Amino acid sequence: MIFVNLRDTGMTDYQVNYITPEIKLSCYEGKLFKTEATFSDHLLVWLISGTTKIILSGNAMVLDAGHAFLIPRNHLAMIINTPKDGLPHKAVAMHLSVQRLRQYYQGKDIKQKTIADKIISFDQHPLMQSFLASIIPYFDLQDQFPEDIASLKITEAISILRTIDKDIDSILANFEAPHKIPLEDFMEKNFMFNLPLEKFSLLTGRSLTTFKRDFSSIFNTTPQRWLTRKRLELAHYQLAEMQKRPTEVYYETGFENLSHFSYAFKKQYGFAPSELLTRKH
Prior knowledge:
The chain has helices at residues 98-105, 126-135, 147-164, 169-172, 183-190, 197-203, 208-219, 223-240, 246-252, 258-269, 273-280; strands at residues 2-8, 14-20, 23-28, 33-39, 42-49, 51-56, 59-64, 68-71, 77-82, 89-96, 120-122. The chain is an alpha+beta fold. It has two domains: 2-172, Jelly Rolls (Sandwich), CATH 2.60.120.810; 183-280, Arc Repressor Mutant, subunit A. The strands form two sheets. Strands 2-3-10-5-8-11 form a six-stranded antiparallel β-sheet. Strands 1-4-9-6-7 form a five-stranded antiparallel β-sheet, with no helix packed on it. Strand 6 and strand 7 (59-64) form a beta hairpin. Helix 2 runs antiparallel to helix 3, helix 6 (197-203) packs across helix 7 and helix 8 (223-240) crosses helix 10. The radius of gyration is 20 Å and the shape is globular. The N and C termini lie far apart (48 Å). Mean pLDDT is 86; it is low at 1-12.
């Protein structure tokens, strides 16, 4: 199961070419393309051109062409893709499913160590570059991509990750389902992600009913009201203290669009977001 929440603020061409259900090439030529996602598979991405900004739990990283990154499964991430230097945003993405990884690790003696479950970026490593160069030509195939070759390429990618990062087994070979975690800490770190409550409940190891009950007992309000208030507080801080523009702020704080953000902001604070910038000058 994959949850992806896409926002296209450039309203121009976005193209995806799958050679298998697990391997795709995406190309975007607009101004900005936002994705809020959490995957049940690990997602390995090679950035060919353009820039990718990844926001998670209040932190952000910006990656340029030539870099690769791994998004662990069941991990919330806001991904903002932008063309650069006259080139579209272009990337290859590969899903590393639990089924594939179980097959790979079967019979292997793995010594796991506890490491932070976070998005991992890789510099322009020769093994990564050679693998990308080997897979690009397959996207021009007119016939169906053979499953045995797809399996070999995914196995090769896993082996490269293990060569580059000696601790990667602690993520790739961990097949546990999301377990019940402290709700308050999780929500404080991830409120800016515009996800349905069902997804928040899953990621905290709860049924939807239990999630709502626990939430009410902790925050003394409904999830919808709390999320709106927290997102507006973050937006106010970014506008007032960081001098960001409303067009930058709304998509980083979990709002559907600029008009919805402006309406909610004015209802909360009594003035439009743009007025706050005017007052600072």
